[in-house]
Amino acid sequence: MSHIEQAATQTPRQVAIQVLTNVLLQQGSLSTQLNRLQGQLATDQQALLKEFCFGVCRQYPKLNSVALSLLTHPFEEKDTDLYAILLLGLYQLSYMKTPDHAAVNESVEACRELNKDWATKLMNAVLRRYQREELEIIDNLMQMPSVEFNHPKWLVKRYKKHWSNDFQQIIDASNAHPPMCIRVNLDRVSRETYQSTLNELGIETTLGRLSNASLYLSKAMSVNQLPGFEDGLCSVQDEAAQLAGEILNPTLNERLLDACAAPGGKTGHLLECMSHSQIKDQKGDQSETQTSSQRLPSLTAIELEAWRLEKIESNLERLGYCAELLCADASEVEEWWDKQTYDKILLDVPCSATGVIRRNPDIKLNRKPADIEELTHIQKNILNSVWATLKPNGHLLYATCSLMPEENEQQIATFLSEHTDAKEVPLNHLNADLDSNWGLDVSHGKQLFPTLNGNDGFYYCLLQKSA
């Protein structure tokens, strides 16, 4: 059988079992595995694949607790694929409209497809028991944080410790489906004009309150349905992430660095802001004759992995902007820096991504407490190294999509104590038009929590280098 014929015989369930098995074995993130394997399916089948995979990951803490309570002995590692089948069967019985008998029978048949016929009776017995006793089983497990809050116990404990007043909001938003938010390219069209265009097409939107370029779609849709998307009129980006461009407010002739750039959403926004600022300057100075391409400021974007750099390049090509793209480790400045200092730096460091769990629900499976300590070391190294590339009087915006103080305000506190040439400035320091009445003021910077039908969780702190 050819590869094409084999691919054609794959079902969404079969591919979902492959994806979930790899995620359970920590062989890559959910998004990475989906990108790698969804090509085995026709385009019209990929939505069901994503429903299976995102659904199981989103409900994993609860499903895992239920599964372990139903099994006399956990599956061995070599049978992780069977555990993926069980989790998927439980998800269908609890959260999908699949008829119960179909969910059970398809799970049993999946065991046979893996040539593990010995597991068919076990799979059938476990799922049928859950089908009969679901309410009682859940009720007996409800005292477990993983079942009550649908989050790992360690994460629940940290949220309660750090954010007791906002705990329920964080849990509710992190368990929900994320809204679809777009960023209008203000360099090309006003938000109001683009919203009117969408309204004429029957696409309902509401204005975001944090970013002046944000629109929330009432219903998620393919980007191909958004007018002008391929021409760069808009991009899909969470509203909290859009604040980076507005806080840095890059202007004409400034030299910028986006130090951890992938997937390139903020890179594109910075270039939009730069070019838009040029248009505003030209309106104020009728003697301006240079073209946009001649006057676009310099921006360098760095990313460690080559395949992610390609995504940035593709994103910028769609938007119609260019930047210097470097494949490098941002902390190894001697490997990439040309000794020309930067006016402004965006440092959106690798983090636990605990503020965007609803978009990356596999975090519930694979993120561990030890990861936080490891990430803080990585963040500190990058911050210390990149600081050397900033001009005197220049500004660095430190950002994460994390809710962990160790990665955010505590990281900045340590940095300030070790760098006498650094000081914190207000987040509207570079943009007087920026409304700073958002987020929670913490010891350094601001913390945003994920909200239902609103922004993701994010952290920002703006630093200035002394002359």
Describe this structure in words.
The chain is α/β, with parallel strands linked by helices. It folds into three domains: 3-147, Orthogonal Bundle (N-utilizing Substance Protein B Homolog, Chain A), CATH 1.10.940; 179-236, Sun protein, domain 3 (Alpha-Beta Plaits, 2-Layer Sandwich), CATH 3.30.70.1170; 240-465, Vaccinia Virus protein VP39 (Rossmann fold). It contains 19 helices and 13 strands. Strands 5, 6, 7, 8, 9, 10, 11, 12 and 13 form a nine-stranded mixed beta sheet that branches. The chain has a four-stranded antiparallel beta sheet with strand order 2-3-1-4, with helices on one face. A hairpin with a 6-residue loop joins strand 2 (205-207) and strand 3. Helix 4 packs across helix 6 and helix 5 (60-70) packs across helix 6 (80-95). The longest helix is centred in the first third of the chain and has 22 residues, at 120-141. It is globular, with a radius of gyration of 24 Å. It starts with a helix and ends with a strand. Mean pLDDT is 93; it is low at 1-7 and 284-297.
Q: Fraction of residues in helices?
A: 40-55%
User: What is the level 1 CATH name of the largest domain?
Assistant: Alpha Beta
Termini Cα gap: 69 Å
Largest pleated sheet: 9 strands, mixed
Tell me the Rg in angstroms.
24 Å
The total of helices stands at: 19
Q: What's the number of domains?
A: 3
Mean pLDDT across all amino acids: 93
Percent of residues in beta strands?
A: 5-15%
Q: Determine the CATH superfamily of the largest domain.
A: Vaccinia Virus protein VP39
Globular, elongated, flat, extended or rod-shaped: what is the shape?
Answer: globular
CATH topology assignment of the largest domain: Rossmann fold
Class per helix and strand makeup: alpha/beta
- Unreliably modeled segments: 1-7, 284-297
Tally of DSSP β-strands: 13
CATH architecture of the largest domain: 3-Layer(aba) Sandwich
